[in-house]
Amino acid sequence: PLEVRFDLQMPARVVIEVAGELDLATGEILRSAVAERLNSLAGESLPAEVVYRLPNLKFIDAAGLNALLGIARPTLQDVVIVEPSSAVRRLLGLIGLDGMIIEESNR
């Protein structure tokens, strides 16, 4: 199962915590949850940064990563990942996107 939680820190950023498994089967659940939340901000400016907090994401594949990145790219300027699980860190390292990981001590 996939769990998604939001912390809107307007106007600067939205923190999205994703837990469970993110893959082809659950990517659409994430897309829908984020779209619904962002659409609820109608009339407000969208946050400039999306922060994915992923310490409890136990599994992620390329389709799951595409869901994470595809949501934010068209509308938000910056996308960062904090507290990545080992699965997230491994996948980002394999494809050369480990620069997206920001250690909380650097924020």
Question: Could you explain how this protein is built, in words?
Answer:
Strands 1, 2, 3, 4 and 5 form a five-stranded mixed sheet that branches. The mean pLDDT is 84. This protein has helices at 27-39, 62-72, 86-94; strands at 2-9, 13-22, 49-53, 57-60, 78-82. Strand 2 (13-22), helix 1 (27-39) and strand 3 (49-53) form a beta-alpha-beta unit. Helix 1 (27-39) packs parallel to helix 2. It has 107 residues and is α/β, with parallel strands linked by helices.
List the SSEs and their pairings.
Layout: E1 2-9, E2 13-22, H1 27-39, E3 49-53, E4 57-60, H2 62-72, E5 78-82, H3 86-94
Parallel strand pairs: 2-3, 2-4, 3-5
Antiparallel strand pairs: 1-2
Helix pairs in contact: 1-2
Please give a handful of descriptors for the protein shown.
107 residues; single chain; 3 helices; five-stranded mixed sheet; alpha/beta
Unreliable stretches (pLDDT < 50, length at least 5) are: none
| Beta content | 25-35%
Query: What Rg is obtained from the alpha carbons, in whole angstroms?
Result: 13 Å
The assembly state of the depicted protein chains is: single chain
Q: Main sheet?
A: 5 strands, mixed
Protein structure class: alpha/beta
- Overall number of strands: 5
- The helicity comes to 25-40%
**Alpha plus pi helix count:** 3
Based on CA inertia axes, which overall geometry fits?
Answer: globular
Order of helices and strands: EEHEEHEH
What's the mean pLDDT score? 84
Measure the end-to-end span: 30 Å
